[in-house]
């Protein structure tokens, strides 16, 4: 089985006469890690759905030049998914970014909550964001996701809640007593038109505070339970996102409820 | 918020006159890591659903003695879930064991497939199994899961397939063209009685071979797709298990189909 080799080329990177020179990081990966040579095929994606079938034509000063043979423009799937995640301490968020990107998240918002244990040092935050953006590109390469998720800067939870677009469908992973399986919420509150964007909120290891749950409820977040056990943030993110994706896939498979049928 | 402290005491560990002495590992955790003292409350679970509310009464030669005040016997939920996982290389399986245990897996089977990259050195395998068993106990403590999953020894895929109990409902995470969302399979093939055990198979990073997919199909595994992207094994396990748990939760919420209604 010959493996497909992927490379990322940012949307602002120029293709002149179907040729493009990759940056050093991507060039190094192709020539030193994957050991590709002239004539080898590379699939190049720009992170916004454009995928090019290319051939490696030259290596000049450690930079790879590719020639594009075919362009495919993919459409982003609907609904899009936004994940608001209370950033855990240490490097756990790196794995969360990777896994959520494999699964096709469209936007990641690193949140600061009352029980967050993340550093508020601006330099450390900037370096984390940079690391996560690279992790997202790598996860796209590995999984075949053609859309690199947008990663926001760190935001306080209440600020983020206030700024959400009104038409979004909102879910918070919850261990509170009013939490229900997502399917029950979808059955109870069928919408006349399916949502185009779903927003998921996952709290920190110590859980959201009661006040934060109240804030989320006030902003129309539906509390969803993920089973009886207390999940770590990384497990909760993948579980909640997997369930939401699957529920909306099935929900959109069915014709929307007509207002006069209710 | 006072945190609940949990400790594990194996089912064969003796409770005489409501008192029990914990082993060194558990004692060390309570006294050195959590810094508990006489009079502190500890919830002790035996990994088979028995949960005791206890009080720390003594520490003798670095071993903790507890007095049991109340015993609760929990019932295991139905269906039970078995995960057969092609063991990835390195330490990835440790995280998979942790996450699957948080989510309530009942049994984990480390599988060897044609594209597995795991070592077949018996000593290394034994030490991995020991590490995973400890990881499962730790994940139970952290998540409040009262049932420590059984972890099988390494097994070749074909051997495992042949030995499965006939009444199990079987799913394989698949990127093959015949894969469908689990819900479609459940709608297409409604069962007159809901399954008591669900078996999930997740292949290795390089995927199962065509022959292995054929073997799984021959053993009545339904190929389920987890979305359009290629997921790493750890992501695939959590996704597949989350979706299966949620689907069966909803499926069991509904009355079973009566044979004469078909």
Question: Could you walk me through the main structural features you see in this protein, from its secondary elements to its overall organization?
Answer:
- The structure is a homodimer of 262-residue chains.
- Chain A has helices at residues 24-33, 92-102, 122-143, 157-162, 182-188, 210-218, 233-253; strands at 6-8, 19-21, 41-45, 50-60, 63-73, 80-86, 107-112, 150-151, 155-156, 169-173, 197-202, 222-224.
- Chain A is of the alpha/beta class and 262 residues long.
- The first copy, chain A, folds into 2 domains: 6-73, Hypothetical PUA domain-like, domain 1 (Ribosomal Protein L25, Chain P, Beta Barrel), CATH 2.40.240.20; 80-253, SPOUT methyltransferase, trefoil knot domain (Alpha/beta knot, 3-Layer(aba) Sandwich).
- The longest helix of chain A is centred in the middle third of the chain and has 22 residues, at 122-143.
- The model of chain A is unreliable at 255-262 (pLDDT under 50).
- Chains A and B meet through helix 2 and helix 7 of A and helix 2 and helix 7 of B.
